[in-house]
């Protein structure tokens, strides 16, 4: 059976996969929809899925200027965790983690979810106090978290260097055992296939060029494939949220920055968990293919390009080798960059807007992937009911006027 499957894969490759059934339809735009979601990444497809599944809105379109999963959904490091400091953040990220645990079965698609554990390192007493505070806050919110001393970190991740002679010695760290990683394209494809099964039209290569507003309300969008009428329009366009908002005259407190990562040549299983360090600005995990997935913080410059600067790579490599000298002879295979929207408080916007029928989900910074199902679930509820539920309510745009910010710089930062 295995030989037959391998032969079939080879044969279909030579035939351009002409014998395979597409996972979703190549839909043509209808003149009108009950709701349109701009953005065919994880958050956008999750939004459409929950709108159809939970709220009965099946006359929906997801419009994507490129191909499904070709934006930030295909340019991230797939880390899943919920150990944020504040109650509001813990609620949405833990909601997402709960959904992640059963999402593969729900979508009937192997998303390669691996709850291998996530460690956030401390390198000095001040950082240790902050992380211990977060552990206690997590426990109060029902988030699994524990503090490990340096020997506990070494026991959980045997290849880490805990020598006191390095520039930033490891003195301990937090551990969320339910955290881990999954496979980004599998998640996107699983959502897309389920959306299609429920009648949602997925419109690829369909760029939004304008939004039409009459009497303060959305009436439709102009696209590269023609005008589409809709009374409900949802923007889920990581990296370009400000661009879409500007089409209706909204100026958001968001900056867009490049965020880069890279992978090594594949190895046999050696790195058992996810390790993150805010102080030295690097994080690392190992993919199911054996590659080390390595990242750092955002580039300082504001840009819509998917290119970062070499100094970020140099710094993260130096940091990585201090923590893991075992990787010193490893060769790097490829590097890539995405674009992240960053809000002043390092928390997202999930909000309706002054334009009736126009909703925004963006500003996730480096935390977008881990929130995918929770974000889509809460955003779908907002779109269907025109009011945020308890999870989404703290993330409305009004917080930038009232000052009720959800300041998660310490729990976000490089710790994706």
Task: Give keywords.
about 425 residues; alpha/beta; D-Amino Acid Oxidase, Chain A, domain 2; eight-stranded mixed beta sheet; six-stranded mixed beta sheet
Walk me through the structure.
There is one protein chain. Helix 2 packs parallel to helix 6 (184-197) and helix 3 packs across helix 9 (372-385). The mean pLDDT is 94. The radius of gyration is 22 Å and the shape is globular. It has helices spanning 2-14, 42-55, 87-107, 125-140, 150-156, 184-197, 241-246, 310-323, 372-385, 399-402; strands spanning 35-38, 60-63, 79-80, 118-122, 146-149, 172-176, 180-181, 201-203, 208-214, 217-223, 226-229, 233-235, 255-264, 274-277, 282-286, 292-295, 332-342, 349-352, 358-362. With 416 residues, the protein is an alpha/beta fold. The chain starts with a helix and ends in a 14-residue tail after the last helix. It is 30% helix and 22% strand. The strands form 4 sheets. The chain has an 8-stranded mixed sheet. The chain contains 10 helices and 19 strands. The longest helix has 21 residues, at 87-107. It has a domain at 114-179 and 255-342: D-Amino Acid Oxidase, subunit A, domain 2 (D-Amino Acid Oxidase, Chain A, domain 2, 2-Layer Sandwich). A hairpin with a 5-residue loop joins strand 15 and strand 16 (292-295).
